Amino acid sequence: MIPETAAKPNPIEQFELSRWWVNEIYGVDVSFTNASLFMLLAALGVVLLMVIATSRSAVVPGRFQALAEMMYEFVAATVRQTAGKEGMKFFPFVFTLFTFILISNLIGLVPYTYSVTSQIVVTFAFAALVITLVILYGLFKHGLGFLKLFVPHGVPLPVLVVLVPIEIISFLSRPVSLSVRLFANILAGHITLAVFGGFVLLLTGAGVWAALAPVPLFAIVALYALELLVACLQAFVFAVLTCVYLNDAIHPGH
Amino acid sequence: MATEMQLIGAGLAAIGTGAAAIGVGLIFGNFVNGALRNPSAAAGQFTNAIIGAALAEGLGIFAFLIAILLYLK
Question: Contact A180/B61, CB-based, under 8 Å?
Answer without folding.
Answer: yes
